[in-house]
Amino acid sequence: MKVFHIVGARPNFMKVAPVLSALKVYPHVEQVLVHTGQHYDPNMSDVFFQQLGIPAPDVNLAVGSGSHAKQTAEIMTRFEPVVVEANPDLVLVYGDVNSTVATALVCAKLGIRVAHVEAGLRSFDRSMPEEINRLMTDQLADALYTPSEDGDANLLKEGISPHKIFRVGNVMIDSLVRLLPLAERQGRNGLPDRYALVTLHRPSNVDDSAALKSVLESLLAVNRDVAVVFPTHPRTRQRISEFGLKTDQLRLLDPLPYVDFLGLQSRAQVVITDSGGIQEETTYLGVPCLTLRENTERPITVTLGTNVLVGRDPEKLRAELSSILAGKQKKGTIPPLWDGHTGERIAAIVAA
Ligand code: UD1
After folding, report:
1. CA 239 – ligand 1 centroid, Å
2. Is the C-beta atom of 330 inside 6 A of ligand 1?
3. FRET pair for 4, CA 20 to 30 Å: which of 81, 143, 155, 228?
4. What's the confidence (pLDDT) of residue 237?
């Protein structure tokens, strides 16, 4: 049996690692790793492969950046001959990035089976490119592996057959569980004892100069109460310099490797983010998370976890931050099946 795994962007890497490793115990499964090259900077890609123990990709499509149409089309054009020639029995796609939907569409047209890892998440906000990617990928996939109950419910409402849906849990948490002990041994690297860890890269927050200016002003206000440590996505760094915005005393760092970032998250007083995956990681770690978005495709992080949606309201951010700094943070629990064994559950289904 031949299985393809598709990765392209940073948040895919921590999801593929546990599945690759769990499938190794099935000798009849031959695995082929395809990197689309959506993310290509060494600190957005190579270093994640090293730390997560992912083997070098068998195929690298090296598509790089571009508009959504161009990037998606380029992935499709370069992937088609590769998948036609290898003719895998199953293609596993991960998450909600352009690489996910592009390759799922190619396979669906060719009649090659596709399974979607992290299926069923919905923000119900179609202005987010990832929401379009999630909706399309789930309609195209032959098997849907969901992280939580809300995922199953969303898929059933969209008319997906229950026979295709498998609730397996959150695969990214497998990587976290495995590498947390190493992350906790990391030194402080000159950072203060107390800090707010910030990440920001969503187009709605960073592509518009007024929106980005307002978020940075809120962060400068946060920085007066607790030091802001801000590993900066290349997209965000580009926009800050393009718009000529001030970041003054904020500690801007380059994007960090997985283990280093996990260590920083586990020791942070609070995490302020617009990422999807970080809402989940903070929930697992029990670290307060303030999400700079109006909605989330991961509602379980709000209902069960430590996440609070503050949107772009500076008042709400300030109010939530001061309760956290006063020790009155929301107490969360870890959602069911976020137990470090999701990769094994996926592998068992795939191998069978
Ligand atoms: C992509 C995903 C997003 C995910 C994010 C994590 C889509 C639609 N979006 O967004 O869901 O949360 O990855 O990082 O797939 N760039 C570099 N070096 C790189 C990669 C990107 O400089 O290695 C710059 C390029 O200028 C590029 C921009 O960042 O134009 C955006 O990259 P892109 O892959 O298009 O989207 P992300 O914002 O990273």
Report:
1. 13
2. no
3. 155
4. 97
